[in-house]
Amino acid sequence: MTVLDAADLRYAYPDGTLAVDGVDVAVERGERVALLGPNGAGKSTLLELLGGLIEPDGGRVRYFGETTDADSVRGRLSVLTQNPADYLFNPTVREDLAYGPAQLDCSREDVERRVERVADRLDLDGLLSKPPFRLSGGEQRRAALASALTVEPDVLLLDEPVSNVDAANRATILDLLDDLAADGVTLVVSTPDAELVAHVADRVVLLDAEGAVAADGPTREILTDTDLLTDCALRPPQVVRLFDGRTDDVPLTVADAAARLDGDPGTAAGLDGIADDDRK
């Protein structure tokens, strides 16, 4: 089933700059899709168009094969933009997590069940009574993600979900995204970071600097096409660059590379160090 179907989407900023230029993209139920492109390629704008947060200047988005009205499917669709403060506006974290399902007329018992379940999964139990502005940046991002999840969406759209978070928060969020995908939640993640894509997506919609689709295909096919990524002003993943031309089956992550090197601890440690340096 097609859960998101965008046709000829166009959007220009108030100054006339074209941000999204004739984008066609369809997302099937259960897919993990990355919107990958350089800064300024219109990824965030495209995500907001797909989520119905802004209206396109041209084209349309159809949801679940049923409607073009995003507001009518808010119980099935959640969008998390880059700024956690957009989602954390109540006196406490608990109230922020309860806000979404309360708007869906869930019973008090159901709201509490959803809040407790998501808070436990994102390690927010000890933060529920705190004001959101008292949280660290990583805690705010986890709380904002939790607020998007308490509506129990079928489709989750995320804009740079692990940007500016420490390693522990990054691992928590990525593990959760794996769990959501395993549960059948459809994920669309916007990012300029080719290193992240292999961890969050099975398919990539690659945007060029002009806001148009340069390629749409399996993650392995896109990430190993170093010329294509470079032409789109993106740096190919470090591991891909290391193995490019040396094997027909290029690993996409450090973990993949280490596994293929027969578990050599020294090599694996060296690859980890390279990847850490590359993220700085």
CATH homologous superfamily grouping of the largest domain:
P-loop containing nucleotide triphosphate hydrolases
- The main sheet orders its strands as 5-6-7-3-8-9
CA-based shape: globular
Summarize the amount of helix as a percent range: 25-40%
Q: H/E order of the elements?
A: EEEHEEHHHEHEHEEHHHHH
Radius of gyration: 19 Å
Proportion of beta-strand residues: 15-25%
Mean pLDDT: 90
DSSP strand count: 9
The N- and C-terminal alpha carbons lie at a distance of: 40 Å
**What's the number of structural domains?**
3
Unreliable residue stretches? 274-280
What structural class do the secondary elements suggest? Answer: alpha/beta
Could you say what the CATH topology of the largest domain is called?
Rossmann fold
CATH top-level class of the largest domain: Alpha Beta
Membrane topology: Peripheral membrane protein
Pfam family, one: ABC_tran
GO molecular function, one term: ATPase-coupled transmembrane transporter activity
Main location: membrane
